Amino acid sequence: MPNPDTAAQSDIKNSCTETVYEVTAADLPVHCPMPGTSLWNSHPRVYIPLDEKTEAACPYCGALYKLV
To answer: How far are the Cα atoms of 1, 6, 33, 38, 51 from residue 11, in angstroms, in the given order?
Structure first.
């Protein structure tokens, strides 16, 4: 039987915390959490203001978004 703690830890790795996303101008506007993020541990959607600067962090989870 799988260890539930191990399963939870692997799901946390799929969340947006402590992640760096490289995005292009074609991806704008960018929001966090990104599509495909596990819903059970997500925060409310927030748009990241990359049109004004080249990198910005999510105020909820700290995920860093870099415009390349």
So the answer is: 17, 9, 14, 7, 31
